[in-house]
Amino acid sequence: MPDQDPSADSQEPSILDTGTTEPAPDSDETSAPPESSDAQASPSTEEATSPSDAEPSETDELHFEDDDLAEKLRHADEDQLDNAPFGIIKVDDEGEVEFFNQYESELSGMDPEEVVGRNFFTQVAPCTNNRLFRGRFKKGVRRGELDETFTYTYTYKMRPTLVDVHMYRDEAGHNWITVQKY
C-alpha cells in the first residue's frame, strides 16, 4: 500500500488540491509558467512526481472517460479546455453557455463567440430541449448533484450525429456538458 500512495498523491491531489504544500516548489511555481522551468522535466510530468509538474500535465491530458473529469475541467485553463479531444460546454443553472470549446465548435459548426451568452437548450442546440437531455440537466441542478451519462443523437444544423454525453456539476457548482462523437 505504501507503493500506491505516492503515485495517488502525485496524480490526483495535485489536480483536486491545488493548495498542496508538501514540496516547496509548488508554492513558488504557481505563478510561473510551467513550460519555462519544467521543460527539461517533461519525462517526470508523465509520471507526475511533483505537484507543480502534475497539475498542468494532467489537466493538459483531459480524457472523456476520467472519473474526476468535472474537477479537472474546473481547474483547467481555457487553452486546455479548447484543446481537449472532445466537446466541452460550460453552462449556468439556467443553461446559458459560459464556455464552448473548439471541438464542440467544429462538431456543431457554431462559433464559440456566437454561442456564449445564449441558452444551450433553446438557442444553441434546440434538439436537446427535451426530457431526455434538458430534463436530466434540470433535475441534476435541482438536486445539486448532476452526474448523468447517456448516448444521444444531435440533429440541429447537422446530419444526425451519435454522441456520448456526460453532464457534471463540479464542487464549485459549475455545470459541464461533455460530448464525444462516435
How would you describe this structure in keywords?
single chain, 182 residues, alpha+beta, Beta-Lactamase, 2 domains, five-stranded antiparallel sheet
Explain the overall architecture.
The protein has a five-stranded antiparallel β-sheet with strand order 2-1-5-4-3. The protein has helices spanning 4-16, 25-29, 34-38, 42-47, 51-60, 69-75, 78-82, 102-108, 112-115, 120-124, 131-143; strands at 87-91, 97-100, 147-154, 161-169, 175-181. The longest helix has 13 residues, at 4-16. The radius of gyration is 18 Å and the shape is globular. Helix 1 (4-16) packs across helix 5. With 182 residues, it is α+β, with helices and mostly antiparallel strands. It is built from eleven helices and five strands, in the order H-H-H-H-H-H-H-E-E-H-H-H-H-E-E-E. The relative contact order is 0.12. It folds into two domains: 4-60, no CATH class; 69-181, 2-Layer Sandwich (Beta-Lactamase), CATH 3.30.450.20.
| Strand residues, percent | 15-25%
Rg computed from alpha carbons, rounded to a whole number of angstroms: 18 Å
CATH architecture of the largest domain: 2-Layer Sandwich
Low-pLDDT windows of residues:
1-59
Provide the succession of SSEs. Answer: HHHHHHHEEHHHHEEE
The residue fraction in helices comes out at: 40-55%
Shape: globular
Distance N terminus to C terminus?
38 Å
Number of helices: 11
Could you describe the largest sheet, including whether it forms a barrel?
5 strands, antiparallel
Q: Which structural category do the helix and sheet elements fall into? A: alpha+beta
CATH uppermost class of the largest domain:
Alpha Beta
CATH topology title of the largest domain: Beta-Lactamase
